[in-house]
Write a structure and sequence with these properties.
InterPro entries: DNA-dir_DNA_pol_X (IPR002054), DNA_pol_B_palm_palm (IPR028207), DNA_pol_lamdba_lyase_dom_sf (IPR027421), DNA_Pol_thumb_sf (IPR037160), DNA_pol_X_beta-like (IPR002008), HHH_MUS81 (IPR010996), Hlx-hairpin-Hlx_DNA-bd_motif (IPR003583), NT_sf (IPR043519). It is found in: Cytoplasm. One of its GO terms (molecular function) is exonuclease activity. By secondary structure, this protein is an alpha/beta fold. It has 24 helices and 18 strands. The chain has a five-stranded mixed beta sheet, sandwiched between helices. Helix 1 packs parallel to helix 5 and helix 13 packs across helix 15. The longest helix has 18 residues. The structure holds one DNA strand.
Length: 572
DNA sequence: GCCGTTTTCGGCCCGACTGTTTTCAGTCG
């Protein structure tokens, strides 16, 4: 079993925590954290890069030393430096870093004064009232720690974007009622349309004497006020979501939007650009000495860096600054570019609505076409179609299309990829369809090589047009299965198969980086809602969000094609 | 420990809030 990037990153992070607690050089600590971020977010497995003989020290924030450590980790699973550090500093201390308000210095103080090594030790000490007596702590610190421990639940999950919207929208509506409020905007990963959101960053401009902060902390969903100042407050809502509110002068609104939209890496890169030009960039503007030379709009900030405006979805420091400098930013796809939807279910299998209702809903959304892609027979839990029932559905579609001219229903099926890579229906049935969607729905735990071969074999079938939800992951629920996506994409490019970006908010499968990889390899993408009801068709916008994060343009996406061109593409 | 369009050495993003201080360190984003 190859070592996951995530495991490597976790080890580097733990090492960074322990080194920081020991009081190591803070820049060395940061180097490990930066490396952890690079490895965790890298679209290809370190093990594969090594297999291909690539030089890991070419990766950002990875130098010779860390390249060697990753090599060793992949080869043997060992990180000797971490073992060594754990000999002298209890490894559970890194867990304490997750408690809000406790950082390296204070953990070290607790460890030295009270021999606190674990969360349980901390709990007991807090209950006994020992913490208040440690130098640098007091009554309030002890009380805060107690409160945090009650809520502490280990690894905190990030919130799906769709849920974050449900939390953010009423809050924004409420905030708009604050006296003296002028502008309001949500920043952070929410604005970058990341698939999950850690906390909400809300930005406001207001009149001098406004009561925005009081209004904010009075919100009925507020469970706890973490901090409250004139320009910045943090609360927890009852749902557990952290919300940061910042108030900035209007003249700084653009700079603040830029700053608080992030990503962190993008901001750091922009700041460095600024420094090179002799400017200082912060949330109040771009400064030359004491003079503010930009900041009212985001565009003005980029302009001072000699860059065009960069869309929030691209701000991940994954090459967007270089692309901007060269004038090669993608013209990102928009919701209006979509002409149809190539993955939808009906009552015939596990959908909730009839073919007609689905078709009407698609027409109402201005689509030219909608593909009905019910499940195939192997998926018995979903009442998958056998040949006979499929035939019946095709007749119904013919009849429907005969009566309509504002939308065309495409005949298709989401056919199961069997364990050996064969498809769940014979070619004689598949060739009757406008196109075929293939998907893995069982045997998620095959070894990587077998899983990859299974999917490659399915792509080999001349009747396969699109591979649906390619990784099988469910956000916060199920990891992607083990497979070699790059190989799949290369094969798809070779054979002219498209790959789906499934727009279900809990799938968003492909990931943003995988979208970019597909694009770079020349693979076309189908952004599809996998709708199980008429209202699910609205998930398209989440697919668009993800596609934009993956640098996709209209020309990369098959369902931006008009019907005739799409059908031509599917001709075999 | 990483990195370089003035650098292979000497930098490394920076401002707000809190609590425990009596002028600021620690933490966070």
């Amino acid at each position: 079993m190859p070592v996951h990037n995530r495991e490597i990153a976790d080890k580097f992070d733990r090492l960074a925590d322990l080194l920081e607690i020991e009081g190591a050089n803070p820049f060395r600590v940061r180097a490990y954290r930066n490396a952890a971020r690079t490895v965790r977010g890298y679209p290809r497995a370190m093990a594969d890069l090594i297999d291909d003989g690539e030089d890991l020290s070419e990766l950002p924030d990875i130098g010779d030393d860390l390249a060697e450590k990753i090599d060793k980790l992949v080869e043997s699973g060992d990180l000797p430096l971490l073992d060594e550090v754990e000999q002298r500093t209890p490894k559970a201390l890194s867990e304490l870093m997750k408690i809000e308000g406790l950082g390296a210095k204070r953990i070290k103080a607790l460890h030295e004064a009270l021999e606190i090594d674990t969360i349980d030790d901390l709990k007991e000490a807090a209950e006994r009232g020992d913490i208040r007596n440690v130098e640098g702590f007091g009554d309030k610190s002890e009380e805060k720690i107690k409160q945090r421990l009650v809520k502490y639940a280990g690894d905190e999950q990030r919130t799906q974007l769709i849920e974050a919207e449900e939390i953010a929208k009423p809050l924004v509506e409420y905030l708009k009622k604050a006296k003296g409020l002028k502008d309001i905007a949500i920043a952070g990963s929410y604005r970058r349309r990341k698939e999950t959101v850690g906390d909400l960053d809300i930005l406001i401009t207001a009149k001098q004497d406004a009561d925005v902060m009081d209004h904010f902390t009075d919100y009925e969903e507020v469970d706890e006020i973490v901090s409250k100042g004139k320009t910045r407050s943090t609360v927890y809502l009852r749902c557990g979501m952290q919300v940061d509110l910042r108030v900035v002068p209007q003249v700084s609104f653009g700079a603040a939007q830029h700053y608080f939209t992030g990503s962190r890496d993008h901001n750091i890169a922009v700041r460095k650009l600024g420094i090179k030009k002799g400017y200082k960039v912060n949330e109040y503007g771009v400064f030359k000495g004491d003079e503010r030379i930009a900041g009212k709009t985001e565009k003005s900030v980029y302009k001072k860096m000699d860059l065009p405006y960069i869309e929030p979805e691209l701000r991940e420091n994954r090459g967007e600054l270089e692309a901007a400098r060269k004038g090669e930013l993608p013209k990102l796809i928009e919701l209006d570019d979509i002409r149809g939807n190539l993955h939808a279910h009906t009552k015939a299998t596990d959908g909730h609505d009839s073919l007609k209702k689905m078709a009407r809903a698609a027409a109402e959304r201005g689509y030219e076409y909608l593909a009905i892609t019910d499940h195939s027979r192997r998926l018995a839990v979903a009442n998958g179609l056998d040949e006979k029932r499929l035939r019946k559905q095709l007749d119904a579609i013919d009849k429907f299309n005969g009566d309509q001219d504002d939308i065309r229903i495409l005949k298709s099926i989401e056919v199961d990829i069997l364990e050996d890579g064969k498809l769940d229906l014979p070619d004689s049935a598949l060739k009757e369809l406008d196109f075929v969607l293939c998907a893995v729905h069982h045997k998620f735990d095959l070894p990587r090589k077998k899983q990859t071969e299974r999917i490659l074999r399915a792509l080999d079938n001349r009747h396969c047009h699109i591979l649906a939800h390619p990784s099988g992951r469910l956000i916060n629920e199920r990891e992607a299965y083990e497979f070699d996506l790059e190989k799949i994409l290369e094969e798809a490019a070779d054979r002219g198969r498209a790959i789906e970006l499934n727009a279900q908010p809990d799938r968003l499968d492909l990931t943003d980086e995988s979208c970019k990889m597909a694009k770079d390899l020349g693979v076309k993408i189908s952004i599809a809602t996998d709708a199980h009801s008429a209202t699910d068709l609205d998930y398209m916008r989440f697919g668009i969000d993800q596609a934009r994060r993956g640098w996709l343009e209209k020309k990369d996406v098959v369902n931006c094609l008009p019907l005739e061109k799409l059908l031509k593409l599917f001709e075999r």
